[in-house]
Amino acid sequence: MPSIFSLPRVSRRAIKVWQRNLDVFWKTWKVNFFPPFIEALLYLTAIGLGIGTYVGAIDGVPYINYIAPAILAISVMNSAFFECTYGSYVRMYYQKSFDAIIATPLSIEDVIAGELLWGATRSVISVAIMLPVLVAFGVISLPFSLFAIPLAFLAGLTFAGLAMCFTAITPSIDTLNYPSFLFITPMMLFSGTFFPLSVLPAIFQYVALAVFPLTHLVALMRMATLPSAGTLLPLHLAWILTATVIFCVISINLMRRRLIV
Asked: What pTM did the predictor assign?
């Protein structure tokens, strides 16, 4: 049996799986477009304008401007992760969509690669919906903020691959609650999202930088949306690129093991 680190054979047919999911998405586009728009408004109003009135500037940036890139990063994480955990599990186990697609010339690897691409696309859609809201609030800088869109796709692949790893090993859909609450929630809170990492003990800073993809995505989003370049951009980008390749390769191989009877 091939190693989980073996490079999977993925063909161009994977785009057909992505297309299938996109077609389903557009049938309920009103329901799917509404949550990211409201999420941005809630975060900016409750935390930015609410709690933010009690918080001074951070690194010379008003608090509402400081959390705006983190809102985009959290949306990237949640969109890709939950699409490739609960969404993919439903398509695999309950709807039997994977079985039907594999009966065509598409391979298991093509199906999972298509799912990963779709998870990243969901991240792009969420960011594209949120960006006009942040622009309306005047909390991000244009035109460089548009770099958040390709960044959302790259990081979306990271979280999609990570999510698919959990989907491949979970015994039931209920078990997916564990990575959601024990990994995603702590990552959302301790990745430099709502306060700088520097205020945490050193050990937590090391964990956030070494383990949490969101830490690097938040840093990259801040570099893209705030008027400051940041000298660590290559390091954060290299971490995301490396994690994307590793997670996607492992997830495809794990799903192949699960689906081959």
From this structure: 0.94
Contact 84, 91 (CB under 8 A): no
CA 52 to chain centre: 25
pLDDT in tens, 101-158: 999 999 999 999 999 999 999 999 999 999 999 999 989 888 889 999 999 999 999 9
Question: For the chain, what is the domain count?
Answer: 1
C-alpha angle 120/125/128, rounded to 5°?
A: 125
Q: Does 1 reside within a domain?
A: no
Range of the domain at 73: 14-259
8 Å CB contact between 85 and 159: no
Residue 37: band (very low, low, confident or very high) from pLDDT cuts 50, 70, 90 = confident
Query: Do the beta carbons of residue 80 and residue 124 sit within 8 Å?
Result: no
